[in-house]
Amino acid sequence: MEASPTENSVKNWALLVVLTIIWGSSFILIKRGLEVFTPGEVGAYRMVAAATILLPLSLPRVRNLNRKQVKNLLLAGLLGSFFPAFLFPLAQTQLSSSLTGVLNALTPLFVVLVGAVFFDTRITKRNGLGLLIAFVGVVVLVAYKEGGGWDSLAGINAYALFVIAACICYSFNLHVIKTRFTQLKSIEISSISLLMILPLALLYLFAGTQFSYKLATHPRAWEALGYVSILGMVGTASALILFNIMVKSASPFFASLVTYTIPIVAIMWGVLDGEVLLLGHYIGIAAVILGVWIGNRK
């Protein structure tokens, strides 16, 4: 039986910090993978790596599922892993890893909207104030770019819509996990949902791309493969288990707050990779942290 909901427990905050580091590092790993592979190859192999490492956990458990659970786990696999795994690399072909990490922080906004429209949930005034402040921080991070100007919002091209689409997928998945998996453990949800999408990822990777050819001919293919392997095994498989634990022990709102702290790590990696962090970025980061604190303080 999962732990009872305790919004501000030490366990939940520890999970938030660990997931921030793991997922905040995902965007630089995607960037490294895209130096050799296409967005589709990065997304498909990420899913293959994640699902494969969890096979010892998923295969013994899948036989105990009923038909309804299988359908729900397939839905969770598609929304929480498969579709976002393709959308983020596609976005990063035209967006920097830092900006992609920042846009990912829009997820809590969609969690609130999806919950209100489809799952009959509500948001408190305190949560709303925290969301507003953190969202302002995200806007500052997006608007304040190299050169110190604010007109660079025009630089957000249509590829940002792929990140937004991924955020919407995540928000639906948060509520699906919270409402449809009261009888399943977090490790079962994580491992079996990835098992459900493994055939799709394998079929696309080896029948629809030049992945195998690149491994045999590209001089940097195996280096890039290593980055995407870490992305799949740590950034997806391990992190998904931790995230589902947090979703089941806290509220969807609290669990979604990890997307507010992810930009901090994503921007730090961007700086190490040669991107510039300006005063406006510090202001935005401070607003994000303040919003998280206000939204969840006792």
From TrEMBL:
InterPro entries: AA-Vitamin_Transporters (IPR050638), EamA_dom (IPR000620), EmrE-like (IPR037185)
Listed transmembrane segments: 12-30, 42-60, 72-91, 97-119, 126-144, 156-177, 189-207, 227-246, 253-272, 278-295
Keywords tagged on the record: Membrane, Transmembrane, Transmembrane helix
Domain EamA: 15-142, 160-294
Alphabetical list of Pfam families matching this protein: EamA
Record's subcellular location: Membrane
Membrane topology summary: Multi-pass membrane protein
GO cellular component: a single term: membrane
Family statement drawn from the similarity comment of this UniProt entry: Belongs to the EamA transporter family.
Name the UniProt record assigns to this protein: Permease
Organism listed in the record: Algoriphagus sanaruensis
Lineage: Bacteria, Pseudomonadati, Bacteroidota, Cytophagia, Cytophagales
